[in-house]
């Protein structure tokens, strides 16, 4: 099944028919009412697109990166290679393999391309700046990002004759500043500014350095210690549980990996860190997701900014408000809201007893995916995700761009 969010369907309708977002929203609203709420907004948007004769998924020919959606198969894409990552080997369930990836950009956007096993044979010959054409690939979602994967039936061509790629778009989508109260649990590339009102102890676990898969104590071979940490952030409109994986935990606390690992041996030493971090103002960029177990929205940080200047944030908020609010007397209200965010956070209320994180190994996905097994949420666990290859590389991409 191809997963196409309503926002992308609206964009396609606007491009094809020139309708405004408000006009499309009105049509979707009427369709939802007509079907008595028995369909989702995404489904209603699909129907509207079909009624208007708008092709959402390209049936043939090369697809633009911005028009690729999880679940699409037999995809053809052409673009420029903008960045190569390291080729890695892995041993999954006794089966050895290779995985490599690079970033491909066209005039609409940029996507990560992943090569498996025999497809990596041409990886050494690839160079940044090469024109690359890919045939018969498929699209999957990895932690909120789209990825293009090649299997045994896929074909990769380097600098094919007669193929010219013009201007490319390599920057990430604009970050959208939001307040906690606005989050629904389905946002990406969101920027939050908040105050730390509670910090939890880091959780440590062992992984295979080649696959990122969690291993047991009796694992034979190399092991690496990873960790995850949670905090409660408050922005004056509400509070949200935020997950900081290894690299982002280091940035939040301004600690090296060696310093973080010391807390595994001496957990009591982390008590002072928790105290020192209370009241710290931080800015994070990442994605949020609904945790159905606890019926709450949670945030995962992909980027962390510390040493925030409240005056600069107030200045920025005022400037943003001036572009959207015509009334000149709106600024004091916005400033008051920012003061509440930075100086008077609501204290996080514990509505349930915190449970121990239950890290479980993810089953092998369908469609022949050889992705090294990650770590996902257990039935009674708090929300966790794997700090594996893709996440690290995407964090690097955020910083670079």
Write up this protein.
The chain has 401 residues and is α+β, with helices and mostly antiparallel strands. It folds into three domains: 1-56, no CATH class; 61-171, Nucleic acid-binding proteins (OB fold (Dihydrolipoamide Acetyltransferase, E2P)), CATH 2.40.50.140; 176-400, Beta Barrel (OB fold (Dihydrolipoamide Acetyltransferase, E2P)). The protein contains nine helices and 16 strands. It is globular and about 60 Å long.
Question: Summary?
Answer:
This protein has 401 residues and is α+β, with helices and mostly antiparallel strands.
Q: CA-to-CA gap between the ends?
A: 32 Å
Main beta sheet: 5 strands, mixed, barrel
Report the β-strand fraction as a percent range: 25-35%
Question: The CATH topology of the largest domain, please?
Answer: OB fold (Dihydrolipoamide Acetyltransferase, E2P)
Which class of secondary structure composition applies to the elements?
A: alpha+beta
Radius of gyration: 23 Å
**What is the top-level CATH class of the largest domain?**
Mainly Beta
Order of helices and strands: HHHEEEEEEEEEEEEHHHEEHHEEH
The best one-word shape is: globular
* Count of the domains: 3
Helix fraction, binned, reads 25-40%
> Reading side by side through the largest sheet, how are the strands ordered?
1-3-4-6-5
CATH A-level architecture of the largest domain? Beta Barrel
Structure summary, number of beta strands: 16
Q: What do the pLDDT scores average to?
A: 76
- For CATH, the homologous superfamily of the largest domain is named as Nucleic acid-binding proteins
Per DSSP, the total helix count is 9
């Amino acid at each position: 099944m191809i997963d196409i969010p309503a926002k992308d369907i609206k964009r396609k309708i606007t491009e094809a028919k020139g309708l405004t977002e408000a006009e499309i929203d009105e049509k979707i609203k009427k369709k939802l009412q007509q079907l008595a709420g028995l369909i989702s907004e995404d489904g209603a948007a699909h129907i509207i697109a079909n009624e208007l004769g708008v092709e959402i998924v390209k049936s043939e020919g090369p697809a633009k990166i911005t028009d690729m959606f999880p679940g699409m198969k037999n995809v053809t894409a052409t673009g420029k290679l903008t960045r190569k990552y390291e080729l890695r080997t892995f041993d999954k369930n006794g089966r050895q393999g290779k995985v490599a990836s690079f970033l491909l950009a066209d005039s609409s956007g940029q996507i990560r391309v992943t090569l498996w096993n025999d497809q990596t044979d041409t990886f050494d010959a690839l160079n940044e700046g090469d024109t690359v054409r890919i045939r018969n690939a498929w699209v999957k979602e990895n932690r909120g990002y789209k990825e293009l994967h090649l299997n045994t039936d896929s074909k990769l061509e380097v600098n094919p004759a007669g193929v010219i790629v013009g201007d490319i778009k390599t920057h990430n989508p604009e970050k959208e500043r939001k307040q906690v109260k606005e989050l629904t649990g389905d946002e990406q590339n969101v920027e939050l500014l908040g105050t730390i009102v509670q910090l939890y102890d880091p959780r440590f676990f062992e992984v295979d350095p080649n696959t990122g898969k969690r291993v047991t104590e009796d694992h034979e071979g190399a092991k690496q210690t990873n960790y995850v940490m949670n905090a409660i952030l408050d922005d004056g409109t509400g509070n949200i549980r935020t997950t900081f994986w290894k690299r982002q935990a280091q940035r939040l606390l301004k600690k090296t990996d060696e310093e973080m690992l010391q807390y595994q041996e001496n957990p009591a030493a982390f008590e002072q860190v928790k105290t020192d971090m209370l009241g710290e103002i931080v800015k994070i960029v990442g994605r949020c997701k609904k945790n159905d177990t606890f019926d709450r929205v949670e945030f995962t940080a992909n980027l962390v900014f510390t040493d925030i200047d409240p005056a600069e944030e107030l200045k920025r908020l005022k400037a943003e408000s001036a572009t959207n609010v015509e009334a000149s007397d709106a600024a004091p209200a916005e400033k008051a809201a920012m003061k509440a965010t930075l100086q008077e956070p609501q204290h996080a209320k514990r509505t349930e007893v915190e449970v121990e994180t239950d890290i479980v190994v993810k089953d092998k996905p369908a469609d022949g995916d050889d992705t090294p097994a990650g770590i996902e949420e257990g039935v009674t666990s708090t929300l966790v995700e794997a700090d594996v290859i893709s996440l690290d590389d995407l964090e690097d991409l955020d910083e670079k761009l």
